[in-house]
Amino acid sequence: MTSRNTAIRADAQDTPLNSLGFAKPPAETRVVVAMSGGVDSSVVAAQLAAEGYDVIGVTLQLYDHGAALAKKGACCAGQDIHDARRVAERVGFPHYVLDYENKFRESVIEEFADAYLAGATPVPCIRCNERVKFRDLLQTARELDADCMATGHYIRRFDGDNGAELHMAADPARDQSYFLFSTTGEQLDYLRFPLGGLASKAETRALAAKYGLAVADKPDSQDICFVPNGNYASVIEKLRPGAADPGEIVDMDGNVLGQHRGVIHYTIGQRRGLGIGGLGDPLYVVRLDPETRRVIVGPKEALATKVVSVTDVNWLGDEPFEAEIPIMARIRSTRPPRPAILRPTGKGRAEVELLDPEEGVSPGQACVFYATEGTRVLGGGWIALRRGG
């Protein structure tokens, strides 16, 4: 099949670029909008349609439709699919629902459970973007002969001297670059993020009201979509029976301090709910050992991490991923980037030295790289090991 993209820039010097960066009228530019049913992606679809683009809305059903009907604040199931469909009907563009339950379970949920069982702290939203939305759905958009795919993510894409660049959102409070670090250069060429330049979420809701969308006041999703009420352990127990076997809580010297109700109930940095009060200074979970079913606790200073080893690095910088460079590194989505040194150690591997130690770093989390000046995202990787300072 011949792509519509082959003729996009035939008259680029004579035709001004439209708002999506193509040298042709919006009416001749097809864009697939990934619609979760929330206000963000709904506004993207409505705005592009209002600008005259050939919009096609696509919603993925990612997990059990029946179980999700009563769940509020999720995405991609139940009421959210209905909301996406209503937006399409009101604005007047075609909308499709694709059943991706099996792909989502295999690519995201199963790994989530296995990572927790291995003592890691997974970030399934990144895997969903990487393996489902920006891989499988993006391929569907190409098959629909679309020029690009747009999403409601708060992140910016700029055309640089060496191709498309990924940048943090204009609103730091809404920035989602941590969850999109694994977007490849090829995917970035095809993706568009119309909301990345907005100053606040209030602007998005104002646009929703302007377009008469029923989701204008819909609350943001808070939990991982397939985890009801944030109860990770209950999901893992259903997926992996026997995962909540009890074990010992020990200090860093191996002394038994108490019993726990299953390693899956604990995370690195946790202080509350250990059931070992009255032992003097506060104790925190510093390590999990699933093989011995032990939860290791220690003082707060034992949480300080100076060096992290990362794997599966996705590099978005202009220079080859070879030399040591200063960066800003973000270890958790809720924390700002901090000064660090990035040292490549092999294909897809690196060591990140944090100039100021961070607390609560856990294997399974992402480490995202940023330029030392400006807003550019240079890539990132998955934390495999951590060392104190």
Description of the structure:
- Residues 308-383 form the tRNA-specific 2-thiouridylase MnmA-like C-terminal domain.
- This is tRNA-specific 2-thiouridylase MnmA.
- Helix content is 23%, strand content 28%.
- It folds into 3 domains: 4-229, Rossmann fold, CATH 3.40.50.620; 244-302, Roll (SH3 type barrels), CATH 2.30.30.280; 304-387, Beta Barrel (Elongation Factor Tu (Ef-tu), domain 3).
- It is globular.
- It has a 6-stranded antiparallel barrel with strand order 12-15-14-13-16-17. It has a 5-stranded parallel β-sheet with strand order 3-2-1-4-7, sandwiched between helices. A 4-stranded mixed β-sheet has the order 9-8-11-10, with no helix packed on it.
- The protein has helices spanning 39-50, 65-68, 79-91, 101-117, 124-143, 185-190, 201-210, 232-239, and strands at residues 30-34, 54-61, 95-99, 148-150, 155-160, 163-168, 191-192, 247-250, 256-260, 284-289, 294-298, 305-315, 325-330, 338-346, 349-358, 366-370, 376-387.
- Helix 1 packs parallel to helix 3 (79-91) and helix 1 (39-50) crosses helix 7.
- Residues 1-12 and 65-74 have low confidence and may be disordered.
- It has 8 helices and 17 strands.
